[in-house]
Amino acid sequence: MKQLELLTSDCISLLQKNSLLKPLIKAEYVKSLLSSINVEDKVREKMLAEFFNKMGFLNKSIYNKWLEKNNLNESDVENLALNNFRLKEYCKSHFSRQVEARFIERKTQLDIAVYSLIRVKDFYTARELYLRITEENADFGELAATYSEGIEKKTRGIIGPGPLDKAHPKLVEQIISSKAGETLPPIGIAGSFVVVRVESYDPAKLDDFMRQKMGEELFEIFVETQVNEIHQELLLKIKLDSQVAI
Question: For the whole model, what pTM was predicted?
Answer without folding.
Answer: 0.78
